[in-house]
Design goal:
The complex is a heterodimer of chains A (about 220) and B (about 500). Chain A is built from eight helices and seven strands. Chain B has about 500 residues and is an alpha/beta fold. The N terminus of chain B is likely disordered.
Chain lengths: ~220, ~500
């Protein structure tokens, strides 16, 4: 993913709690096998209402979405993050996030800015009153600024470093290949296996049958 | 390694650790079920990285996997453990027995088959005797076992926690991560006890218990926690009931839900195709019996419910915490103190087309859907059939029952349940996710009102403009007969009895 250190831009106030991922990207859109082009589906059903905030020209070109509590609750669909980013959002401010959605954000470089309910309310009110107001999210310092509001946001250190450097999670984990192989070698053979036949499932002794087939560290197809 | 993506130059990057909660693998003397399963899967911990967990079982379906396989191809990576990975088609499949007519759905299903063939993954495609909803087939094949870690690119993976597994939903990037490494870095959540003492009255099911818990703690009540369901009423549940309960943990914002394994668990598992056999079974059993939380284990949070006070529940709004007992009425937003909750309630009632103060039993329905990963197992079908025997679906109601898998369907047919449903006027369908989420032809029309045994009453979840009320299978069946919300006890005597 692309490194992200500072996001600064105008913001859309979406003053609704419990915005679920079914609203962010309706399920019809999930049939696609690509990772791109989901921006058109973002809030597709809500955007049909003329009064929906995303349709307000005053907020065109905004890069920060400001929501209420429990944003991104529900389904695990990462398509919700792809849709927000494809539309042009680089950060989402909320007082709490759905767990899986939050994880998905950090895998793609969409900054989840978790602030206190009071700060969230202050930012919502500020950008509603003045659509030209800038919201600035500083990942390295862990702060969010908007008008008179200056507040910290919650981000664990590992995620902060991953965002700042744009590190690939899989690459990070593959540095621990030796640990993974060691764990596998000690794993009981009766643990569930999809390809196990009746015979191998009965064989309690010896190493996990498939462990021996694990290729050498770093080898590729 | 043929990396196409960035990785750090030095292994340990900073010492500004902020991950105290994520790096402790040393637990105090009394450990919870969750602690024991977590600790048994830590591949490594330390430094500034969260614990790296080993994944025992990775379930894959057609919707959240195509982009993950693409990622593997782009990076030149392989699937590390195809033998710990299993795939099935469920979200897109039509349930009327015909072929897939939507070309976009057909393509997604085809791509799953191609990816599984290319990467050597066992796949149960449409029509396969083992095909079904991913959270139904894992347990019924004996793949879901106590003490394991199970993941899937689907939020209802929490279902598998019924076996004392730690099971949680992941996004597509994490699907790719597990395919490539069979591990996931995870920040350690807290453990939260949901203790349900006493005995549930007749007619109160696991679904009602799940809805009551969510109604109590709210959609964010489980944030950052894994729930452990405990107490007499939970112990009394069958495995199917425990799966229903754990399934809906995600609707309370929890990472996962778990029930300690016991003789009910072991009796369900023994003899299933992928369960350990012989000496291996004895070894496994010995370990499984050590998994329940220690008597002196402490939980970060505790919630206590009395099962004896529970009644069947029905949702009235657009999130699962907007729920009331069937004896109650649609709430009045003006009487809700919290402004955010009041606004949400007012908006929900507008979407649902409901007036405050309407008794739940006075609300007529157009459709009844019995199915989904929450309530499509054999016991769910039996519960509904028991209500429907000798009765007819209301003339204004369309009703469909969608077994969770081909195995469930075959068993139900062997027991004659299909005949009961058909005689009552239900449609008897082929397995799949069906009307739970509007990705296949089974959808609600705008404004159509549905009593559904599924898990989410979000706006548009069952089809654009559709109005979903979540209920148990027994209430769904009684509602189909009455044409408006009803519990089985509300129905008049059966024909000919």
């Amino acid at each position: 993913m692309k490194p992200v250190s500072v996001v600064s831009g105008r913001a859309v106030p979406l003053d609704r709690a419990d915005v679920d991922t079914d609203q962010i990207i309706p399920s019809d859109w999930l049939k696609r096998v690509e990772r791109t082009g989901f921006g058109k589906g973002l809030f597709a059903e809500w955007r049909d209402e003329r009064s929906f905030v995303l349709n307000d020209p005053a907020y065109a070109g905004a890069t920060v979405l400001v929501a209420a509590s429990n944003f991104g609750t529900g389904s695990s669909r990462e398509h919700a993050v792809w849709a927000l980013m494809d539309y042009g959002f680089e950060a989402v401010v909320a007082s709490s996030f759905g767990d899986i959605f939050r994880n998905n954000c950090t895998k793609q470089g969409l900054v989840p800015v978790q602030v206190s309910p009071e700060v969230d309310r202050a930012i919502l009110d500020a950008v509603r009153a003045d659509p030209s107001l800038l919201v600035t999210v500083d990942v390295a310092r862990g702060t969010v600024e908007c008008g008179d509001v200056h507040a910290p946001f919650t981000l664990d250190e590992f995620t902060r470093q991953r965002l700042l450097h744009g590190w690939d999670d899989i690459g990070l984990t593959l540095r621990h290949e030796a640990d993974i192989s060691a764990y596998e070698a000690a794993r009981p053979s009766w643990m569930p296996s999809v390809t196990a036949t009746e015979a191998t499932a009965t064989d309690a002794a010896g190493p996990t049958p498939t462990a021996a087939r694990t290729p050498a560290p770093g080898s590729q197809r | 390694m043929s990396e196409t993506t960035t990785t750090p130059e030095t292994p340990e990057t900073t010492s500004r650790g902020n991950l105290a909660a994520g790096t402790s693998s040393v637990a105090p003397a009394g450990r919870t079920l969750f602690d024991k399963v977590w600790d048994a899967h830590v591949v490594r911990s330390g430094g500034d990285e969260p614990d790296l967990l080993y994944i025992d079982l990775h379930l894959v379906h057609e919707v959240t996997s195509p982009q993950a396989f693409d990622g593997l191809r782009l990076a030149g990576r392989r699937v590390r453990r195809p033998d710990l990975t299993v795939a099935t088609a469920d979200h897109n499949v039509p349930t009327t027995g015909g072929s897939v007519t939507d070309p976009v759905s057909a393509r997604q299903l085809e791509v799953l088959d191609l990816n599984c063939a290319e990467f050597g993954i066992r796949c149960f495609p449409m029509g396969d005797p083992n095909q079904g909803i991913v959270h139904v087939i894992g347990p019924e094949l004996g793949l879901t076992q106590p003490g394991t870690i199970v993941v899937c690119g689907d939020s209802h993976t929490s279902t598998h926690g019924a076996f004392g597994a730690l099971a949680f939903g992941i996004g597509t990037s994490e699907v790719e991560h597990v395919l490539a490494t069979q591990t996931l870095p995870q920040v350690r959540p807290g453990a939260m006890a949901i203790t349900v003492e006493g005995r549930a009255p007749e007619g109160v099911t696991a679904k009602d218990l799940a809805l009551a818990v969510i109604g109590r703690i709210g959609t964010g009540g489980g944030f950052g926690h894994v729930l452990e369901y405990r107490g007499e009423a939970v112990r009394a549940l069958s495995m199917e009931g425990r799966m229903t309960l754990c399934n809906m943990s995600i609707e309370a914002g929890a990472r996962a839900g778990m029930v300690a394994p016991d003789d009910t668990t072991f009796a369900y598992l023994e003899g299933r195709p992928h369960a350990p056999k012989g000496r291996a079974w004895q070894e496994a059993l010995e370990w499984w019996r050590t998994l329940p939380s220690d008597p002196d284990a402490s939980f970060a949070k505790e919630v206590l419910l009395d099962a004896a006070t529970l009644v069947p529940h029905v949702t009235w709004g657009t999130n699962p915490a907007q729920v009331v007992p069937i004896d109650a009425a649609v709430p009045d937003p003006d009487e809700i103190g919290d402004p955010a909750a009041r606004d949400a309630a007012a908006r929900a009632l507008g979407y649902m087309g409901l007036a405050p103060g309407t008794p739940i039993r006075d609300i007529p329905v157009d459709t009844v859907f019995l199915g989904s990963c929450t309530n499509s197992r054999i016991e769910d079908l039996r519960a509904a059939a028991a209500v429907l025997e000798g009765r007819r679906v209301h003339e204004r109601v369309r009703a469909l029952v969608v077994p969770g898998s081909h195995r469930v369907k075959a068993q139900a047919e062997a027991e004659g349940l299909d005949a009961v449903f058909l005689a009552a006027g239900f449609e008897w369908r082929e397995p799949g996710c069906s009307m739970c989420l509007g990705m296949n032809p089974d959808k609600l029309a705008p404004g159509e009102r549905c009593a559904s045994t599924s898990n989410r009453n979000f706006e548009g979840r069952q089809g654009r403009g559709g109005r979903t009320h979540l209920v148990s299978p027994a209430v769904a069946a009684a509602t189909a007969v009455a044409g408006r919300f009803a519990a089985p006890a509300d129905l008049p005597e059966r024909v000919g009895r």
